[in-house]
Amino acid sequence: MYATDASMYQITPLGVVFPRDPDDVAAVMETARRFGTPVLPRGAGTSHCGQTVGEAVVLDFSRHMNRVLELRPEERRARVQPGLVQDELNAAAAPHGMFFAPDTSTGNRATLGGMIGNNSCGSRSAAYGMTIDHVHTLDAILADGAHVRLGPADPGVVAAKAARSDLEGRIYRELPALAERSRAAVEACEQTFWRRAGGYRLDRLTAGPFDPAAFTVGSEGTLCLVTEAEVALTPKPAATVMVIGHFTSTVDAIAATDDAMAAGGAAIELVDNFILDLSRKSPEHRHLAGRLSGEPAALLFVEFYADEAGEAEAGAARLEKLWRSHGHGYAAIRAATAEQQRPFRALRKAGLGLLMAAGKPEERSIAFVEDTAVPPEHLAEYTTRFAEILDRHGLRAGFYGHASAGCLHVRPFMDLGRPEQVATMRAVAEEVCDLALSYGGVNSSEHGDGLARSEFNERIFGSELYGAMREAKALFDPERLLNPGKIVDAPAMTENLRTPNLPTAVPVPTHFDFSEHGGMRGAADRCMRIGACRKPAGSGGVMCPSFMATREEEHSTRGRANALVKALSAPDPRAALADERVHEVLDLCLECKACKNECPMSVDMATFKSESLAAHHSEHGTPLRARVFGGIRRLNAWGSRTAPLSNLAGRIAPLRALAHRLVGIDRRRPLPVFRRDNLMRWFRRRPAREAAQPVGDAVFLADSFTSFTEPHIGRAAVELLEAAGWRVRMEPDVCCGRAQISKGLLDDAKAAAGKLVDRLAGDAERGAVIVGCEPSCVATLHDEHRQLVGGERAAAIGAQARLVEDLLADALDDGRLRVRRPADGAGAQAELLFHGHCHQKAAFGTEASMRLLRHLPGASVRELDAGCCGMAGSFGFEAEHYDLSMAIGGQRLFPAIAAAPGAEVCATGVSCRQQIAHGTGRRARHPVELLHEAVFGPQSRRGSGSTEQR
Questions:
Q1: More exposed terminus of the chain, fewer Cβ within 10 Å: N or C?
Q2: How many beta carbons lie within 10 A of that of residue 504, not counting itself?
Q3: What structural domains and CATH numbers belong to the chain?
Q4: What is the pTM of this model?
């Protein structure tokens, strides 16, 4: 799992340590020194250049050393540990109106230690500089295991430390002398451009007071191991206005950058036509096309910051006037509020993900020339010549990046499994390096050296300055144990590549169809290791709930993907897939499907887990609990038939204890309540209803819970659909197989899915919608059935599968369904909190649910960004998973509900409603329950079935 990062490299580490404090780090360093073992510090492992892979003992700071130690807003300072995520620091500083200014696009997982090691920056670097400009002091462990504090030192301090006989004393004696000897080389070779993330920063020692902390920033863990940092906080601008310039070519957009800088633009971001075309095809971003003017070939996003809104608006107006007078672009849109700016920011940040998801199955968007930079006045010409290099080598790439800093992000599509493509990569790297230098630019302005660029450093800095850098490395690390092979004395960039070293995949039979990606290994290996699944809970979204709760790499989507690729590369991949270690790695996956939606590569870990469970059952036998939960429809039907006795049995302590011991159902978890008058029985007994003006046919999917434990929800849905003009019918005894899929009973699931397809394909092909209340079941028709059953009939059903809110929201919008308006404000509702099901978010989104709820009289609706509830079907019932389930709910969902004690809570998923009731003591209702009352009156609450016999 630690053999890879977000780069093209793979090196198996010697081991991994998760230090809890600086003493642990020192102990590791001392032990490593005793045995001559290299050590490599690591944060989120999001390096694009291979800084965080190596044949070494990896120190993962992100698991335990991840706190804000002290916040001093009055001094604009914070003390932080290296494993702290940037977004978490910003969240702590936000109440004081401050933030950590180097705003990386990976701020929801990038750690401060990684940012310091890399000298990271972001879109606002022209205004705020780089990480090196925001570091005051560093606490670190030197190569001899000593604890030191590095920072600006006056001559007296330098002299006192230089008198010591240890490694720290040697550094304070020899480093100033080395800097002075190198002054001429530094000045002779100093790039004319400031934005540099490569090499050692000897220039920072010759340009001002002696500051070994500044010298250490950007050293990629090759000089010392940072254990704590004091960093600067910056006041947030009170007002931000964005101008989105539309251009007919990338060159025209870049040419317009000078005007943007002259007008005072603090951040100027470029997106070219390649990225825009990808965004138009992306479900997440294609809605943005409606906000743009025409079809631009390039966009510039220019931001103006000020203490007053009028001042920021004035900057935007100056820019628009300059562009008009100079004939740049054909349109400009102004976004003055955070809400207006959000989709444009999302598009810019999605550039990398969009590129990664593009290309042919055998190609990847490769990072090796992705952050060169030149002075902005040369950027247009440089871009043209860069594109000519790619064209000459037959490569495709998108151009985006930080135009205000002259930085281009360019990741050509390549197949590094072909030796000739590896040779092409090297040739392009050399040509682009020389091109950047010819304009006074840099080979790396953002992502550092690592394995991809370190070998070029002598070429970039010249022999004399490179020799001084080697001396500095030897001074700090005389035994070459700290992340060796980075910055100086590096291997060739073409060594240790991951793709060429993967064994040929042995075909493995699977239940799901992975042929689109060349098999299951190819599907798992779509993971680009960028770590989007490693974001903490406070960063929003759903992916990845188990990582958010544990902070452990193996419980992230990336960690699981790495384990699967390793297993599926074995000589007997089916046996490796059934291995207990693989089973352990996948065990805490909640199958929430968030990775399919939020991962840029749409890695579908839920499907991989199901396939792995099936292999495990085949090898080791199917556990009783898997059969119990996989057969939940039969169990619920039996519980309904025998209610209320079945409900009584579920409350008898000795029987719960027996279930805990035999099946592993945690006794703390309340069981569902079975309803004797189930949904199908009610539907068959009710008189047939025909709409006066029917709009179409709807087949209602009576899932296992809406049928037997919450039939009142199904009743409300059917009555509302009929009121909206739908002819509703219900197919008896069909199941989507969701429960069997989740438990790895894939033969049973395929049989259930096949039966459903046989029953409903004719309806779907005739244009009937297949509608349901339970998101996971409707999503299964939309998603898994296409891979599990396949064929045109399953595809037809998937295309017609809709959540009930979708149809009802449309009916409310066009007036076919009307709510009753309370007289004189009577019955006005309190705040309404909505929590969407994970599968709903992944497959359909929550827009229809929110649209429906906003039609409720007097409703003030707020959607919770509370991630996964933690229940995940049977997961939260299982004894070994109960505590994690509750911990996940307790991170965001439970506190959000507790913070609104008077609000009505609404949730679409049965698991979510169960978890909310158990975790908060509050009842959550399905949107159709609330709408039914609003349409038919409050008395419908009784008639909808909430009081039937239990």
A1: C
A2: 6
A3: 15-235 (3.30.465.10), 239-354 (3.30.70.2190), 359-447 (3.30.70.2740), 502-616 (no CATH), 820-946 (no CATH)
A4: 0.92
